[in-house]
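Quick one: Phasin family protein from Noviherbaspirillum pedocola, structure tokens please.
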Amino acid sequence: MQNMPTATPAAREHIQAQMDFLTDVSKNFFHTAQRFNEANMKVMQSIFAETVSKTQQIMHSSPQQALLVASEIAQPAAETINAFNANIANIFAQAQEEIAKTAEQHVPKTTQAARTLVQDVNKMTEEARNQASERGKQAYEHISTLIDKTYSAMQANGQAGQARSASQPVTSQPASHPVAGSAGASKAGA
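--- reply ---
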């Protein structure tokens, strides 16, 4: 099984700071969505209750009163929708304010964590570069030593070879070529 690299403390701190920030922003969004849904439910309940009430009045009134009651339905619905719009604008303004406060709370910690992480990465990069440089120097020294030993061995072999050739007599007999020798023999016989 391969060894998986573990996160440095700075990396864990940075990730934790990011997660805390995202968690709080998510809470803000969900809280806003909840308030938005509550406002929708209230407006729908209000409009439905008003419509049921007016419908019952129409059913129990004379035709002339029914027209008057029917004309009164539009006014409360418009007021309810205007109140709903104002409530929604207020909900979104509060949400924006909450998200800004959340960001304001988390930015210093997140920034510091990021700064620490960058410093940590720079330090690890410098250490890795120094280790690689040291390994390169060691490899160079090893190769240089091998080359020096090989050269020394070659020189020692070369001097021994010269001493061996100096102790052996040099023969000056030319090597005869079998074809040339047979051609010369045929001319001599002719």
